[in-house]
Structure formats: C-alpha cells, structure tokens
Write a structure and sequence with these properties.
28% helix, 16 strands, six-stranded mixed beta sheet
Length: 282
Amino acid sequence: MADNKTKFRVGLVQMRTGKNIEENLEQAESFIRDAAGRGANYVQTPENTLVMEVDAQHLLEKISPEGETAGVAHFSHLAKELGIWLHIGSLAVKVGEGLAANRAFLFAPDGRAVCRYDKIHMFDVDLPSGESYRESATFAPGNCTYVVELPWGGLGIATCYDIRFPEQYKALARAGAKFLTAPSAFTKVTGEKHWHVLLRARAIENGCFVFAAAQGGWHANGRTTFGHSMAISPWGEIMAEAGTEPGVIVADIDAEEVNRVRARIPVLDHTRDFKVETVRLP
C-alpha cells in the first residue's frame, strides 16, 4: 500500500521461536521480508523473537549485552534495506550479572533504533496446568513506556503481559497514541480464555488500533503458545487474525478511523481523576 498521511499497511509476524538464535533470526528475517514484500510499511514480530528458553541459566548463557547482540544490528540493516518501520517485539539482552531485560526495539526506515522499551510488568505465576513462570527472577522490569510518532500517528509501545494493565494503555492513548501494541508469547491456557477479550478491550476503551504479533504452537522448550496474531480496529473489530502456525498476516489501516470512533464515543475526553475511599463498618 502506498504510504500517505493516514493510510498504511501493517504486517504481523507469527513465529514459533526455538532455542537456536541463528535459526530464529533466519526465520524472523524471512517473515519480515515476506511482510514487506506484501506492502507492509510497519512490521511487528512477537515477544522473544530470537530465543525461547524456560531455564534462566541457559537463557543467560546464550544472550549478550545489547551492543553485542547480533540481532540488533541485523534488524537495523533489514529495516533500512526494506525501508520499513520494524518493531521487534522483544529480544532478551543482558543488563547485569544474572539479569536480562525483555527489550523491544523500533527501527525507523533509515535503520535507526528510535525506541527501546523494557517490558514493565513481570509474569510470575503457577498455572493449574502445572506450568510455572518467574519472569522477575531473570528480567529487570522497565519503568517507562513510550509513544513514537510514526508518519500516520502515535504508536504506543507495550509487550505481552502489559495487556492486562489497562492503565498503561490508557496512559499511552492519552499521550497521543492512535496505535497500541502487544507483541506476545501468551500461553495456550490463558490465550484461549483471555487473548481476544483483552486485545479487543484495549482497542475499544481507548479508541485505538491494536497490533499484536504472537508466538504460536509447541516450542522446543516444551512450552505451548496460543498464536492468533491480530490487528484490531478502534471499534473492536478483528481486521486480520492468524491461526497457530508461523507466518504473516497483513491489514490495511486508515488512521482517520481513530478520529471517527473517538468522535462517536469520546472516552478520552471524559476521563476524570478521582479518589477511592474504603468504607469500614463498625
């Protein structure tokens, strides 16, 4: 789709990332090229684009500080070569002894990394299925989220588990975001119950498009992710949706739709500050 002031094409890359970084990088590049070849101006990959490891020690042995992470330079060159906005949902980068950051990157069409976002909310839970996750044991949480001005409007940056915290998305919308993001690696168990509801809710309550590239299927680390990458309209309609297999979906976006929806239901204009008091009975 031709690039203009309001219309563009989004490409969402669905992956089944394994333990081998080089193989994952090759798969990601192939899908990114596919999306760009189908006219996507903005391309998003899922959380954990280059490696999926359950064991924290194995993960830390494989990753490096950002400056030594080959994927960063590789994706920078790819964005420049293809002339696209390239949003890498997240890479694990070492930030200290025994500690990593779950870091998203947004590369401009000239190859510059114009935004780095460290996932704020950590997923620590024991699921009924027997799966256990302790992101905070390995990852240092971020403390700042961002709106990046694309040619068509503001892009609000967030990752996976952040989708369960509507206050973060509301803050992004109030700061000027027309497009909200949720590159993810949702588990199959939670994805089946919550994925569609959460993404559509964030779109509806903010009058924003939502773009969510996902991991899907059974991974070499034994984990099963839900897939179903999606692009959702500000009215909450699913514009494009993947299944569970790796691949690419695209959707044509008109940023003016945000203005039309917000004119019908101006929730951002009606947002008020308030206090909460607890009433305790004697």
